[in-house]
């Protein structure tokens, strides 16, 4: 690969990406444009701007993408009830295509011929960033310093930082107890004290949720309104996507909801242990399933459940911009045409349970399911023929087997 002239770097302002910024300048002699996305990680981003200015970034982009993140990425994913390996709500995975999208757009706007990221060669994020980048611009150069440089230890990183006068926070001079990735959907903690999957995660790892044992002793009820599969209100108050998820995070976190200790199979082949907190997403998933129970036909619901693992795996592996993900999304979105109504959840000590659901587009008919007199709405005699027809092939098999035994 020829040396890039201008690189757009996904920049957090932390030690690793600050070192990458300087490394790009010294290794390639190129201009570096920084891009910092506010995805609701809860950190002040202005220090990142000042640090990038100090280090000679040729242009600096800091953007609030919270609404776009929830509206165009989180909500479409939740229409599918997506869970990777049956448990993980894909909080890190779903943020990467949006960051990549903006990296490519900024590269085009600034005339950059390359983009760079700080993901390591062991993880999933390198795959997600780069698959998305190539899907959006097949000619873009992608630079992954962790796969190229010889700064292979924390000591070497600190030596490089000091040599190049890169500010190092005092708490970074020791070994960090664990690494954290955060956005409006979740927090993800990995490494160090969490690397032994036999050991319980220390309580200080959790940042968004109280310990369920310490949660309020009284349950709280919350009503979430849906329109065509997307949440639109809490307790009758209409909210924007990001505002709504922020409120759900607050409610779930207060009741210790959304903790997950998971050993997952990474796309690159190894297993890793992570601690995830997805309080608002856990409420959203439970409520969405609740409204689908009365508005989604059995056949449609079961088909969705069959394709969900494949859909979730595509997102986990970085194929958000693939044609197969878009095809599955079209199917999923079609299923949501009548998923409109309200769900009441009960929040208590780490659990969120659906306790009520109603909709003007409900398929639930009390007249048909009642144990009281149904006034002819359903003729129970019809069930006999239904059962006989469905039993025919089973009876033929049993007759054959009996004949062979005889």
TrEMBL record:
One of its GO terms (biological process) is L-arginine biosynthetic process. This is Argininosuccinate synthase. Its EC number is 6.3.4.5. The gene is argG. It comes from the Bacteria. Residues 6-167 form the Arginosuccinate synthase-like N-terminal domain. Keywords: Amino-acid biosynthesis, Arginine biosynthesis, ATP-binding, Cytoplasm, Ligase, Nucleotide-binding. One of its GO terms (cellular component) is cytoplasm. It is found in: Cytoplasm. It catalyses: L-citrulline + L-aspartate + ATP = 2-(N(omega)-L-arginino)succinate + AMP + diphosphate + H(+). Homotetramer. Pfam families: Arginosuc_syn_C, Arginosuc_synth. Pathway: Amino-acid biosynthesis; L-arginine biosynthesis; L-arginine from L-ornithine and carbamoyl phosphate: step 2/3. ATP binds at residues 10-18, 37, 118. The keyword Metal-binding does not apply. One of its GO terms (molecular function) is ATP binding. Belongs to the argininosuccinate synthase family. Type 1 subfamily. InterPro entries: Arginosuc_syn_C, Arginosuc_syn_N, Arginosuc_synth, Arginosuc_synth_CS, Arginosuc_synth_type_1_subfam, AS_cat/multimer_dom_body, Rossmann-like_a/b/a_fold. Residues 178-396 form the Arginosuccinate synthase C-terminal domain. L-citrulline binds at residues 88, 93, 124, 128, 179, 188, 264, 276. PANTHER family: ARGININOSUCCINATE SYNTHASE (PTHR11587). HAMAP family: Arg_succ_synth_type1. L-aspartate binds at residues 120, 124-125. It comes from Actibacterium naphthalenivorans.
């Amino acid at each position: 690969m020829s040396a890039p002239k201008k690189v757009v770097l996904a920049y957090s302002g932390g030690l690793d990406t600050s070192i990458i910024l300087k490394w790009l300048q010294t290794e390639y002699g190129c201009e570096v444009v920084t891009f910092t996305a506010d995805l609701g990680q809860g950190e002040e981003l202005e220090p990142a701007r000042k640090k990038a200015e100090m280090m000679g970034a040729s242009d600096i982009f800091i953007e609030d993408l919270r609404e776009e993140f929830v509206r165009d990425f989180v909500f479409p994913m939740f229409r599918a009830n997506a869970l990777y390996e049956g448990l993980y709500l894909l909080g890190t995975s779903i943020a990467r295509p949006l960051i990549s999208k903006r990296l490519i757009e900024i590269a085009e706007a600034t005339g950059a011929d390359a983009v760079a990221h700080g993901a390591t060669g062991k993880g999933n994020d390198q795959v997600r960033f780069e698959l998305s980048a190539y899907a959006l611009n097949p000619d873009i150069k992608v630079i992954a310093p962790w796969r190229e440089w010889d700064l292979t230890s924390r000591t070497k990183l600190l030596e490089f930082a000091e040599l190049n006068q890169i500010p190092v926070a005092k708490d970074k001079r020791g070994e960090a107890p664990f690494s954290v990735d955060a956005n409006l959907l979740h927090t993800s903690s990995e490494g160090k004290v969490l690397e032994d999957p036999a050991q319980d995660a220390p309580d200080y790892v959790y940042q968004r949720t109280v310990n369920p044992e310490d949660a309020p002793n009284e349950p709280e009820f919350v009503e979430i309104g849906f329109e065509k599969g997307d949440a639109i209100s809490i307790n009758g108050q209409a909210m924007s996507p990001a505002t709504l998820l922020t409120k759900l995070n607050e409610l779930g976190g207060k009741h210790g909801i959304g903790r997950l200790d998971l050993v997952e199979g990474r796309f690159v082949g190894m297993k890793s242990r992570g601690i995830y907190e997805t309080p608002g997403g856990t409420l959203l998933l439970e409520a969405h399933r609740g409204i689908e129970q009365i508005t989604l036909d059995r056949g449609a619901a079961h088909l969705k459940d069959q394709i969900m693992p494949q859909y979730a795996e595509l997102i986990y592996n970085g194929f958000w911009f693939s044609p197969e993900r878009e095809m599955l999304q079209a199917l999923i979105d079609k299923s949501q045409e009548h998923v409109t109504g309200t769900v009441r959840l009960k929040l208590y000590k780490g659990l969120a349970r659906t306790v009520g659901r109603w909709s003007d587009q409900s398929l639930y008919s009390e007249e048909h399911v009642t144990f009281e007199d149904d006034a002819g709405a359903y003729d129970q005699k019809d069930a006999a023929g239904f059962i006989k027809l469905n039993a025919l092939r089973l009876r033929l098999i049993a007759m054959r087997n009996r004949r062979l035994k005889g």
